[in-house]
Amino acid sequence: xxxxxxxxxRLLLPLTVVTTGLLASGCGKQFVVLDPQGPVARSExxxxxxxxMAMGVVVLFVLVLFAVTVLKFRDRPGNRAPYIPNWSGSRxxxxxxxxxxxxxxxxxxxxxxxQTYALDRLPPTKHPLIIDVTSLDYKWLFQYPKQxxxxxxxxxxxxxxxxxxxxxxxxxxxxxxxxxLGGMEYSMPGRVLPLYLQADKAGVYWGRSANFSGRxxxxxxxxxxxxxPAEFSRWAQxxxxxxxxxxxxxxxxxxxxGTAREESFSAYPAGTFPTATHGFTLKGGMYLEPN
Amino acid sequence: xxxxxxxxxxxxxTGRGDEVEIAILAPRFEEHAFPxxxxxxxxxxxxxxxxxxxLVVHHVLPPVGLIVAILALATIQASLQLGLFMHLRxxxxxxxxxxxxxxxxxxxxxxxxxxIWIMSFKSGxx
Amino acid sequence: xxxxxxxxxxxxxxLEFQESHETLSILGFWLxxxxxxxxxxxxxxxxxxxxxxxxxxPTPLQLFSLGPVxxxxxxxxxxxxxxxxxxxxxxxxxxxxxxxxxxxxLLLGLGFVGMEVHEFVTDxxxxxxxxxxxxxxxxFTLVGTHGLHVSFGIxxxxxxxxxxxxxxxxxxxxxxxxxxxxxxxxLDIIWVFIFTAVYLSGKIT
Amino acid sequence: xxxxxxKLFPSTVLRPMEIGADASILLAVLAVVYILTRYRKWGxxxxxxxxxVDHKKIGIMYLIAAIVMLFRGGVDALMLRTQLALPNGHxxxxxxxxxxxxxxxxxxxxxMAMPFIFALFNIAIPLMIGARDVAFxxxxxxxxxxxxxxxLLFNMSFVVGGSPNAGWTAYPPLTELHFxxxxxxxxxxxxxxxxxxxxxxxxxxxxxxxxxxxAKGMSLMKMPLFAWSALVTSSLVIxxxxxxxxxLALTMLDRLFxxxxxxxxxxxxxxxxxxxxxxxxxxxxxxxxxPAFGIFSEVVATFxxxxxxxxxAMVGSLVAITLLxxxxxxxxxxxxxxxxxxxAFFGISTMLIAIPTGVKIFNWIxxxxxxxxxxxxxxxxxxxxxxxxVVGGATGVMLAVVPGDYQxxxxxxxxxxxxxxxxxxxxxxxxxxxxxxxxxMFGYMLNExxxxxxxxxxxxxxxxxxxxQYLLGLKGMTRRIYTYPHGMGWTLLNLISTVxxxxxxxxxxxxxxxxxxxxxxxxxxxxxDPWDGRTLEWSLPSPAPEYNFAVLPEVTERDAWWExxxxxxxxxxxxxxxxxxxxxxxxxxxxxxxxxxxVAGLGAVFSWWYVAVAGMMGVFIILVSGWFDYHxxxxxxxxxxxxxxxxxxxxxx
Lengths: 291, 126, 205, 653
Ligand code: HEA
Ligand code: HEA
Ligand code: CUA
Ligand SMILES: [Cu+2]
Description:
Radius of gyration of chain A: 25 Å
Bound molecules: heme-A, dinuclear copper ion, copper (II) ion
CATH class of the largest domain in chain A: Mainly Beta
Structural class of chain B: mainly alpha
Helix content of chain B: 40-55%
Low-confidence stretches of chain A: 1-11, 276-291
Largest sheet of chain A: 6 strands, mixed
Shape of chain B: flat
Distance between the termini of chain A: 5 Å
CATH architecture of the largest domain in chain A: Sandwich
Number of domains of chain A: 2
Oligomer: heterotetramer
Strand order of the largest sheet of chain A: 8-5-1-2-3-11
Mean pLDDT of chain B: 75
């Protein structure tokens, strides 16, 4: 039951760290949604552009029609525009004005359905890198089951390799979102959801949660470092040899309410992430009982 | 002895909501000398209930078939209740209660069926 | 506001339809029932999704025993029947049999609620409270909401009996009895679906 | 005792800002009590207002409450914007910020927009359709008092016990006791439950009124469009609110009675709440939007001095929107991973709504085409609405594009979308209706020049506030963050947005000032028909007498009053046609019922069960004694009506 109370002034420190980190890494690409760095984000942007264009046409058309009407039929003295107070309908006009929106809707609905299905599948060719993601109050825990390493609040990923993120939470719901790599998905307790993303270019991108999860929600921010595969392997290898083990104790500490800096671990206790094979053996993915 | 009373036909709309005065749903107030309708309804509901129970107890069908069957029986029973006990056709000046009831049933089915579908999390990636 | 529906009245309408503002109440009550259909459907949706989520608690198969449930069902079906007889008597203008059948309906309703409470109490004694599992929470809430509706109906019909005895059969009291009967039959329909979608389907594996 | 005080006044309500608010509320209450006592107005208040069942007065009470709540919600909004004006802001802490956006959203939707809509329904609908009251006047008063006491309960949260802080959507598990101890969420759950019951009752009431109480000859297809919009809105209310009732009830059971609907460890499923919430939530946005559409349809025809274009299509699209809006709710959680089939289905159903909405937009424009557009303030709001709503709708369609939503969800792009439709669609519409029907309500006109100032401040302020938020969304700014660092490229846009919000605030202040000013200085409306209107309410004196119509009108055409005027059939009433009228009698029962619910609700919020039970006992006693009340009508004698109408100069001879 005990809700860990802690002084929020202490959080200013991590916040400044994040701030300077964001600045220093120079990844403050401004319109992140418009600056995709991977195929998923790119296909999403493409669709956004298509619909934005269609919507632009709609808005423009309405605006022009509206402006002309209002200017032409203002009630000012000497207005010579026709006054037809009993004109109350026109089959043909109404049909046209019905048909155009139908066509526009069809125009955007078709690619929407295609893309929705396309994004719901993994590219079958390459073996994905798997990263298990757990959102905690208020930090992100990442585990690499193949590499056997774990990180907090940052991930390294190889460029050009599909990454399958398996999302869950041991806290209220968040969303996992790296705008430059692709759209978001909920990370929720009691369930593992898949999300596939890929980086095409080396660089540092930021990710954050978009679903409010309480007082420290603003700190649900992390970095993604995309690097060539060889470098990625070196990094994973390096972690395995240099970083500390994550003990059960460490895991518990991560579960506690509070923020964290970027951290690295060379191994982590089994069962801290629920998988299809061994289910929710530990508390991973199932937050603790109240009381 | 059966008396069926119909209010006089309504010629022009009165603004009191008789637009949907469809022929089959035109209000009629039935009176019988003996409560046949009620007895029939009661007997039918008992029989339908027992039928559903027996189907399940004896596992007459595979599970999915059973569920469909008992839901069908329940639906029949509900319609009987509506028609025989709830005087669905009785109204005055309008049949709006039938329209709203129909809408309610559509919404209700939508909520149940869509919720089951949505909450089954059938993603292609996994 | 109490203008009589002149032309229609000549056709000897049932008492509860003779005054136009009473017919407004009847339509209003139907709309309430339509809204209640959606309320129950939300609970059914919750139950359908939660049926298998039993955590450490009992499964539907373990929890339900069809015997008592069948008795409850028959009680409620019978009460729906007697309520129909009450309306039948009302249509014939016979106040005393009307009151008598309403009292029978009330007693059957009490029997139903009594059995349900007993069922809940034993369930909790054997399996623990709804804290055990989401399934139990959904079960108790769906069935309990119906039970609360029935309990309210009992209160209502009791008040109706008093009003009938005091004011006799007037367009107003007749309308009240009529709307009560709609309510009562409606609860019967909901129960049929609870019986089917909860109890019976819980026995299908 | 100390424990009790700690529960009533936890640290979150002991911040300087809250204490200041407490003090000013206390002062305001004392001032009101003093004025009422000094001028001996208590009896008047009780007789004329608190016990009233007159739809016109109930409408006015809704209106006042809604404007007060707009103020409270608006002050919340200004606090949010102040905090976000600059990076690393220190104006509000995280807890405070979370409470404020929660109360802002909740108040604006439930306690501002809903009562505002019900206000206009109450004021205009019976008059428009030629009825003397709503179908169930007492129930109407009950709805109002349930709303009023629920609003009181909700607003109490920030002075006693602590505010809810999990967003207006209140998703579990964040709202479960484990993550959210304290009473804030209880306030949210119980206050909304109480007002929700009232809303369902209002829906039933107006459905029956419109279906059954129209003037003779006013078939459905001759009804004014505002009445049509009230009809479909009411049907949305009665079929959508039950899902909210359940969503709230389940959370409440979890929090107060230990059930486990949303507790993962016991098999609970938070997404089920989200599902239920939006089964209500999406229809709700149309519950807010459709009445505004109805208002625009009246206003645009009146001030273009022309028949509405495409009446049948307007009706058809209202019905189509109503039906479609039940089947789109998943677009609020496309990112839950329900699979491609679900998302594609709901994405398309969402887009379909654009089609009937487009029909409406075009028909409004073509109503103006060939007319003579008078730019009164009421019409100006309509003119601002069209472009604003089209942009908001268009960005809505962009959100409906599923893969697009994966990028936009919960970003400021979404915030901008929904303020675009909620303010550009709903608030503009309500203001339009306010200006349009004001003379009918109070018998005097609002000052047009001041109204135009308010208008321009509010509309320009609106665009300055919310356009930058689209860009912020594209820059990755997410909602519900209380602060953000430097260097994200968000600073300038946020600053602009905040400036715009203050401009809106100024517009609102001018509007309120104008209302007060006009009361003292503006001309009376003696004709009852200041706009040269088209529908029946303008055939009555302003304000309308208690019984509305001395003689019920008969209708042969659409735009009944306009046609009567064209045909010169607007003469006085022959005295012999006036008969005595049955009207509902005032009763304290609705007020007492609301009070009992309030007591019960307060008890439940703090888990003081004896208080809660006492409140519920009160509810039952009042209900049951209501069943035995057979004298709820009184009769106005024909003579009195004749005298009254003669005084208004409306009687023949
Ligand atoms: C009055 C309120 C209102 C209205 C009317 C709308 C109208 C629409 N809304 Fe909006 N919406 C909200 C209030 C509203 N919304 C709120 C409050 C939220 C967020 C809640 C929260 O999370 O807190 C939200 C969120 C929201 C989402 C969820 C996004 C997310 O959470 O990720 C989506 C997604 O599809 C959406 C879509 C739409 C669409 C397609 C319409 C359509 O109905 C719009 C239709 C109108 C037009 C399209 C313009 C006119 C048409 C034409 C000129 C014809 C030609 C046009 C075309 C062919 C396209 N809305
Ligand atoms: C009808 C509904 C409605 C209306 C009218 C508004 C009106 C406004 N909203 Fe609101 N808003 C919502 C519904 C609405 N909002 C909802 C549902 C949410 C989501 C909440 C959630 O996430 O849970 C939201 C969230 C929301 C946010 C996002 C917060 C966040 O996610 O962190 C922001 C931020 O800019 C915002 C701003 C505004 C502004 C500037 C206005 C302006 O229009 C306000 C205009 C201003 C006034 C009318 C002020 C009048 C008062 C004065 C001038 C008095 C000044 C005096 C003193 C300061 C003492 N709103
Ligand atoms: Cu900017 Cu990391
Ligand atoms: Cu929606």
